Amino acid sequence: MDGVLVQNMSFKVGQTLTITGVPKADSTNFSINIGHSAEDIALHMNPRFDAHGDQRTVVCNSFQGGSWCEEMRESSFPFNQNENFQIKITFTNEEFLVTLPDGSQIHFPNRPGAEKYKYMHFDGQVKIHGIEVK
Question: How many CB atoms lie under 10 A from the CB of residue 129?
Answer without folding.
Answer: 12
